[in-house]
Amino acid sequence: MKEKLKIDIVSDVVCPWCTIGYKRLEKAITELGIQDQVEIEWQPFELNPNMPVEGQNVNEHITEKYGSTTEQQNQSKEMMTEAGAELGFIFDYFDEMRMVNTFDAHILLEYAKDFGKQTELKMAFTKAFFSDRKDVSKVEILKETLISIGLNADEALSKLKNEEARNEVRTKQKYWKSLGVNSVPTIVFNRKSAVTGAQPVATFKQVLSELIAE
Question: pTM to 2 decimals?
Fold first, then answer.
């Protein structure tokens, strides 16, 4: 039997283009009918590793980090909202929205991998943050999300204090950065080729078709 095409998605939980990119990739996989020929693994990347516990207002954060004006931010949000809607995903931006620390969420995504629920948890975190106005750095939200997809929340949350689990995420982040990954999403195929950004469905279909045919 032919080995599955391994797809590593280097991504952050609070990255809108990561969500759009994955949804487009998922659509491409479905349209090609190759769901059973690919294996997806999410890899950790923190856009804001030094984000404090209390987080930061999204508008302030984007102005500070990228120097964009309110008008530019609004245009960008509108573009993301439209792109999400086309894929059945709701981006609900609001004035008090806060950018939050995602390190704990990444630890839990590593935990979920052992149960075949990594993608499900990733999408649940993304929905909680972007669609449901929830703070995915808070333990109660993490717990609620774990339970919603049928994972053992107490066992999973115990990993947050586990130094080995914390180091695993740090090591993986360093590994991908050492390979030159500095923006997300970066989608890597069989650890050989990669595409960055939320590419159109047609682009993903072309890349996948070529790789599956090899």
Answer: 0.96
